[in-house]
Design a protein that fits this description.
16 helices, binds iron/sulfur cluster, five-stranded mixed barrel, Rossmann fold, seven-stranded mixed sheet, alpha/beta, binds FE3-S4 cluster, binds S-adenosyl-L-homocysteine
């Protein structure tokens, strides 16, 4: 998660998988990613599977023999973007066909899971629809689609996917760089009344400790220094340990911290209901666990929290934040907010602003409520007018921006640790992250790549920090 305040437009990250070395003889795959980090992780794993099957990646749609849109269903705009992109691809596919070339088109991700066969009906150029739990079977599914059959694969086979993830190939881990995601948990049982995730990602399922350790060890051996554990409700993770007991996330973090080479751990996204004491204790006792916590609250009004089915009150949230800050005083908090949920009054909105003032966030994401088909919220009366949502969002984002700015400014003059993960914006610079996830740009020698440097912060801009090596 980038440490910036985003609106609903910007939060649909469109990460094109980076271009590799190209070999003319092999087939090329273009992957476009929408939505959350889980999709970013999944896109990389799709790319791994296809690379083993003889594909190379391309960042040019024109060059592609296979196009995959890894989609997001969370808000209406996110889902609609897919269809406009398919319109663009339709023309390209037709042009290629004229020149005797085949271009296969696949829709993956949460729109694929939610809409299934409906996608190929609405966009007949789609050859293959594949849900988030079947990516490891892409080569086979693709062969079937290439024979001219429309393929729709949205069956849940999560254990099979998990098994596949545990043992990434040497070639796949080599591409990971300094920081990497590791999915530990998928799905959601919470059924917040606004949200499609329980329908697109299925029930909460946790990977086993051994599988996670195996994947992380391979990553660390290949040079990964920071691992972010991913899950739709990552702190609901309860996986089977090697001792046959069920472990919690705090315990897992301690185990991963023992792996040689791992210098930093993070996890996202957490639900307030699953913030166990042992996880809070890990923030107190585990140095490699970074002092940053994304803990979405969505609203500061008890009435709205109740109709959202969040199953906690604002006071529960305040108590939890106090406990977390007691364990780790320098922790930076991040969150998600929805404005304009059905029935939200001016007073409810004020309660959210008040909660933000009391908690003080280092960064946050905020969205206008988008009614989603199949969710209870879409059928609620008292939908809030669009212009009211816009006004509330602007007010909320202004407050969150100023908190983020204050937080960044408070670091100027301080000396902090930075994990260097790539080349910087300017010649001679390296870019890394602070413990609180802000990007930091520093003049530094290339051999610090993958290392933690001590850096004095000298300036800040809206979303990043500038520092010098101490
Ligand atoms: N599991 C995470 C969030 C997953 S979705 C959690 O429980 O916090 C990411 C964010 O998208 C949510 O936190 C919420 O703020 C936003 N979101 C989800 N459904 C939405 C909708 N229908 N309209 C607007 N925002 C939504
Ligand atoms: Fe969606 Fe709520 Fe589940 Fe988060 S906890 S994924 S917001 S249903
Ligand atoms: Fe979107 Fe699916 Fe993630 S709906 S936010 S891509 S879990």
């Amino acid at each position: 998660m980038d440490n910036i305040i985003e609106n609903e437009e910007l939060n649909q990250s469109e990460n094109t998988v980076a271009a590799p070395e190209k070999t003319e003889a092999t087939r090329k795959v273009f992957i476009k990613t929408y939505g959350c980090q889980m999709n970013v992780y999944d896109s990389d794993r799709m790319s791994d599977v296809l690379t083993s099957d003889g594909f190379t990646k391309t960042d040019s749609l024109d060059d592609a023999d296979l196009v995959i849109l890894n989609t997001c269903h969370i808000r209406e705009k996110a889902a609609e973007k897919v269809y406009s992109e398919l319109g663009r691809i339709r023309k390209l596919k037709a042009e290629k066909a004229k020149n005797g070339k085949q271009m296969m088109v696949s829709v993956a991700g949460c729109v694929a899971q939610a809409e299934g066969a409906e996608i190929s009906r609405r966009a007949p150029i789609v050859d293959l629809v594949v849900g988030p739990q079947s990516y490891h079977r892409l080569p086979d599914l693709l062969k079937k689609a290439e024979s001219g059959v429309k393929v729709v694969e949205t069956e849940f086979d999560i254990q099979d996917k998990f098994k596949h993830l545990a043992t990434p190939s040497k070639e796949a881990v080599r591409k990971r760089g300094v920081t990497a995601f590791v999915t530990v948990q998928e799905g959601c049982d919470k059924f917040c009344t606004f949200c499609v995730v329980p329908y697109t990602r299925g029930a909460e399922v946790s990977r086993k400790v051994e599988q996670i350790v195996m994947e992380t060890e391979r990553l660390a051996a290949a040079g990964v220094r920071e691992v972010t554990l991913l899950g739709q409700n990552v702190n609901a993770w309860h996986g089977e340990g090697p001792d046959g007991r069920e472990w919690g996330l705090g315990e897992l973090l301690f185990r991963l911290a023992e792996i040689d080479g791992i210098k930093r751990l993070r996890y996202t996204t957490s639900h307030p209901r699953d913030m166990e004491d042992s996880l809070i204790a890990a923030h107190r006792d585990l140095d490699v666990l970074m002092p940053y916590l994304h803990l979405p609250v969505q609203s500061g009004s008890d009435a709205i929290l109740k109709v959202m089915n969040r199953k906690h009150t604002r006071d529960d949230y305040f108590r939890m934040i106090d406990q977390i800050r007691e364990a780790r005083a320098d922790i930076a908090l991040s969150g998600d907010f929805i404005v304009g949920f059905p029935g939200e009054t001016d007073q409810d909105h004020k309660d959210t602003l008040d909660l933000i003032r009391r908690v003080t966030y280092g960064s946050a994401f905020s969205f206008k409520y988008s009614p989603r088909p199949g969710t209870p919220g879409a059928t609620f009366e008292a939908q809030v007018e669009e212009h009211v949502k816009s006004e509330r969002l602007a007010e909320l984002q202004q407050l969150l921006s100023s908190q983020q700015k204050d937080f960044n400014t408070s670091l100027v003059g301080k000396t902090i640790d930075v994990l260097f993960e790539k080349e910087g914006r300017k010649e001679g610079q390296l870019a890394g992250r602070s413990p609180w996830l802000q990007p930091v740009h520093v003049n530094a020698p290339k051999d610090l790549y993958g290392e933690i440097g001590t850096v004095e912060i000298v300036a800040t801009s809206a979303n990043s920090l500038e520092g010098r090596l101490v």
